[in-house]
Amino acid sequence: SHSWDREAIQLVQTMIPKETVLFIADAKISFDSFRDGMTATVNSKTIITVNPDTREASLLFSYAKEVSESGALDQDEKPEDVPVDSITDVYTVSQLKQKAQENPEAFFGITYSFMSRLDIDSSVSKVIKTRCSRCKFLVTEDAQSCTNMLCSGRDQALLATTGFDLPVDITDHTGTLHACSLRSPVAENILGCTTNEFTSLNDNERTAMKWKFLLERCKIYVKITPSTKLRSGTRGVVLACSVADPGEVKQHMSALLQRL
Ligand SMILES: [Zn+2]
């Protein structure tokens, strides 16, 4: 092959996925029916700059990182979600993690565990978030237009969605699943209030709401998606959560122990 081919391949091999911004000048952009998407082909005229020191590159990098870590884009996967009633498989936290390692597809399960982190008593901006409906970028509630320079609707009036969006940790005797997403509309059902009602609660009321869950073993329905983007290797989304019936917990715990 050509020397520029070899150079490009060597360059690409040194890049860390999701950590590199490329500025590519003079590449051939075409539709690739095999990959079902647009692809860029380099040739001898192509100039590739890795992590260019420009404002656009740094914005693009922080945008991609924020969106991919928040899981905001995963919300669009909803159609494949199943009704909570149809989820019956019970797991311990370590079994959920193990299954995610062995199996690249998303799965659903129930875990009888504790919410060991539920920061609903921190600042409201960490609990309720407003995102641009077009690109999912975080925006302030009073913004007139999307602040993401790369948003397709940047020149138009902001079209935004506001909802609960916070990370929760789920713990049982086998371990902890960190930073599972708790979002609207599931969060409204669990917390028993709307975002507007939540905003009007005082600190004591929010702390009381938090401890209602922290001290109790809960029946938590989760969707687990193995994710190479995250250090933990898994992304968890809470689909439902209620304080567990003690009799039900006992029955499932003895069943889980017998399987060991
Ligand atoms: Zn946007």
UniProtKB/TrEMBL annotation:
Q: Looking at the record's lineage, which domain of life comes first?
A: Eukaryota
GO terms of molecular function = single-stranded DNA 3'-5' DNA exonuclease activity; single-stranded DNA binding
Specify the species.
Cyclopterus lumpus
Q: Name one GO biological process term.
A: resolution of meiotic recombination intermediates
Q: State the protein's name.
A: Meiosis specific with OB-fold
The record's section on Gene3D superfamilies has:
Nucleic acid-binding proteins
